[in-house]
Amino acid sequence: MILDSSIEEKLRTLKRLDGVIDFSKSSVQIEIVFLFLIYGRDLTPTEISESANERRKAVLDALRKLQLKGIVKKVGEKDGEPLYGLSEEGKKYSEELLRALGLEGFKLASRVSEEESIRERLIVQKKIIEANYIYNAICYLATSKDQTLSLKTISRLLNLSEERAKEYLDIYSRPPERLFRKIIKPDTRETYYKLEKEGLSIFYRTQNYLSFKNSPIYKLKQKLYAKIPHPNNLKRLFSISSFLFFLLSFLLSILNLCSLFFSVLMFVLGSVVFVIKEVIF
Which sequence ranges are marked TM in the entry (predicted)? Predict the structure, then answer.
């Protein structure tokens, strides 16, 4: 299980690390980081491409992005190819990720067979994916009415099948790490999940909630809808608000320029009329 002792701390760590490498969108980058851990040495793009079964172009693109993030660095050449390795920041990132996933004993390929290395890799990827879905499920439930949603709705929001969503949620619907309470409606036999106090306390500690909770827009939306706004919705709302504010500022600037132009024009016309009067009379 992922959340074995300090659930809040691990979720906070995973979300912070997700901010560096997006777990759901940057799978090749995560794969490369763990390949360095598995093999315990520097690797060429060809070695990474063959081990990860990814196209060379995708690997080179991922390596470039990891270099920009300071996770990976070029350390030399091997067989006419650039040789890459984890930077100090990358090693620190990897250690934090392993601790958060409860994989401090992660084995290197030099000490295990290739089959066991692949198995280790799959375990890590499964844990990362699971943590990401659990975090999103907590956010969706926390921002829903009565902190309750049907399995059908949760699976749609997470973009998962109902069976897969149920598998993830059920892990944390029983002691000792009970974040959700499973409810089966007696009349329809439909499955619902309600966020427990421990799950809600995790949400209140997330960076997204802490960033928005004191904002006027957040408080207004909470009053209007009588529920906590979802962080993703708030981000979109802030983006729209920022754009509208910029547009309004731009229009006001145009109006000010028009007003200034009109004032100058009236001054010029007044001066011309005055001169004409003086000449005629």
Answer: 237-255
